[in-house]
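Researcher: Going back to the complex we discussed earlier. I've cleaned up the inputs and rechecked each line, so this should be the final set. Can you rerun the prediction on the complete assembly and write out the structure?
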Amino acid sequence: MFEVVAFYLFAFLTIAMFIITVTTKNALYALSALAAGMIFISAFFFLLGAEFLGAVQIVVYTGAVMALYSFGMMFFDSIKEIKESPTNPRLTFLLTGMIALIIVIIFVAPIISANITAQYPVGMAAELYGTIDGNTQDVGVVLFTKYLVPFELAAVMLLVAMISGIILAGKKMDVSITELSEQEVDKLIQEREKTETKDNK
Amino acid sequence: MSITLNDYLILSTIIFMIGMYGVFRRTNLLMLFFSTEIMLNAVNIGMAAISKFHGDLTGQMFAFFIIAVAASEVAVGLGLLVLWYKRHNSIDLDTLKSMKG
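Model: Rerun complete. Updated structure for the full complex:
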């Protein structure tokens, strides 16, 4: 009973928050509604017994991703209202509905047809090592045995993303050389050489 | 009355639909990023629900990797967005029409 009440409460709250995010004209409202929705989603993970995933959801999404977005929004004019120019709202609605229907079919079809057996059952760590049963332990066992290579690849990918983010936002690339004419490019190169020789002196 | 897998999948689909509506409707690039995050989260709910109701941990593993992909997507995407804003002084999707490189 408690689970049912919690499910419907958090489902309502999450959907309300995300509807605010996609419909509001104010960027700050959208950002805070999105952060709230992320926290409500972590409630589903706790309900489903995936405590570690819930904690990661709170730490990564509301801690890291939302902070990154709010730092990014300092570059843009977030106070002024966003101008939207929707092309055809009826077409948008129709396309969204059609795709949603397809997604429902995709989700439901394999459940009806197949009997899936668990490859990595919950409670594996307790069986293998005789320790106290816990979701975090199970996750650790599976992550560092079967999924070790994807785990390391994800780490490398995050490092690459971090470096690219720093370089893209930090380097002075506010002039596009491909859009300039020959004379302008020559001028730019001469100016850069001048500043470099000044720095060397 | 108890919550079944179908309830979670329907919820996941509704949230995915909201995100997809956002992607269709928005022309502001920052709002498009927000809608993408919503869609990724919807998939995560579905993964965790299947993991629970089939008693298999693989779904949770994939949810972790989706979170890692989402985090790196935000880092690279925001870097590109800042760069675009510096050049064009706007993050509207309509300014992206010209493909000069």
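Model: Worth noting: Chain A has a mean pLDDT of 80.
Researcher: Good, that matches what I expected from the previous run.
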